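From the shared-data thread, chain only:
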Amino acid sequence: MSLIDFVIQTFILLIPSLVLLNQVWLYFLHKKSMKLFSNVQVNGNFPLLSIIVPTKGEKIETILGLLDNVKNFKWDLSKIEIIIVSDDSEEFVNELRKAIAKENVQFNVNVFRRERKLGFKSGALSYGLERAHGELVITLDVDSRLDPESIYRAYMRMISAGCDAVSLKWIGYTSDNSILAKALLVSTKLGSLTMLLGRHAAGFNVFPVGSGTLYKKKCLDDVGGWDYRMIQDDLEIGTRLMSKGYKICASDSPIFVEVPNNFVSFFIQQTRWAMGTTEVLKNRFRYILFSKSSIAKKLETILYLSQYFPIAFTFITSIFLPFLPFFHVADPLFSPLFLLWIASVAVYSLIYIKIAEETNFSLFDSIRSLGKVSAYTVAISPFITISLIKGFMGKRTYVVTPKGKVSDPNKKYIKIISIIGTIGILFLTGGIFLIVSSYYLVGLWLLYYAAGYIFTAFSYVKELEC
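Structure, as tokens:
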């Protein structure tokens, strides 16, 4: 096997196949984890619970909606304090305080406005932690919602398993009926089953989630709270908790999080996550390396934080495919690994469709949603690659994922879509050239890859028309 064959087969066939097969393995493992959850009852007094809610640019109605949600918690409501940390204007904060004062609540609600806005969400969480009095702390996004028993069950899990932090299970919700929103409802559920419950069942280190992790406050204080300089607050604090030997557990307690319903929101969310995970991998690598975890767990943690790299590797490798005829080499995709890739895609797709149908989607909508989220993920590959580089270089920015329909398109995203469309046409041309040059398999693969870019460009235009 030549070096060219090895590189192409590794980055286009082998690594993507292993990623998908890992997801499949974790999916089947997650059922094992369900047997580990305890139904121990909490006797006696509830500890004081501090709920930290960072907010910026949200509607007052959304914040009041969270308070209404808390009213139904299975908890001693007098043992709850809500700490709202706002980065909004003083005028907005005053209006928010007046609106909250009119609410009939049995718990304390404190609204703080950060005068000195250090960092991003991590900075707001750290600010809230300094003002928290609870024995337990949970972080919530303002648009997250919980079942009445969610935190109670997470606390039971903490007691029965001796956990220092418990991550709740994400379930997506949306008021939109778009195919992308449906796709992300399924992807969010699948991600919780594999990356949270499945990894727990496999014995790997479980990370906190950004909205919906219940912590013992003393553990957060011990590691110094969140680092305001970092983007990915959940992964960042998770690595430092692990390095101190604290135990983070998974839970089947649900938390409902709003999913993006348009290209711009999806783009912002995914590129920020790619940037943030890479930043954590770079800046917290020594914490992982010198943690008290086993070598296997350390390696898996590093791989987990590298989850966006396969997307970048595939994109970079694809750029060189049209030049293969000039090197006079054989078609590199004529390999048994191609069959492995086909099989892994097929099995993963079947699991996705199964979960979609369990979410009451029709078979047609299930297939459409899988196609759309796959196309969008392929299309933003160049920008995922750039985000990974920015994460390593420390040149990162924090952009809040916009909610709802983006009715006024930003010139920046029109430019991004133009780039995506152009790349799609170039890959399409390259695929045709490869087929004409008798590189049939790699040519067809590149046409398949190009389709994601072209579809996304047309889909964005359609989004703007709706």
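The chain is about 60% helix and 10% strand.
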